[in-house]
Amino acid sequence: MKAVVLYASADDFATTAPAHFPAHKVRIDEFHARGDLLLVGVFGDPRTQGSMAVFRSRESAEAFVAEDPFVLNGVVKSYEIRDWNEILTP
After folding, report:
1. Confidence band, pLDDT 50/70/90 cuts, at residue 88
2. YCII-related domain spans which residues (predicted)?
3. What is the torsion angle, in degrees rounded to the nearest 10, for the CA atoms of residue 5, residue 11, residue 17 and residue 19?
4. Can you give the CATH number for the domain in which 14 is found?
């Protein structure tokens, strides 16, 4: 079972995200390099639709958000972790 993190952007996302993106990207790269983060990206309009990340496990997702600069600095107003049963695999 994998885990999906859904982020809801804060109202001031456009002004706060740039300041915290470099640290957020470092975290993305670290989790991806060790195989914990499989996919990550924003929806068509990240301000209103947010973003999503797919993790190898719920534990990986929880560890990521626990110290994610976007969470810690209010770039996102909320997040939800959902367990996800992948049907098709490469």
Report:
1. confident
2. 1-85
3. -140
4. 3.30.70.1060
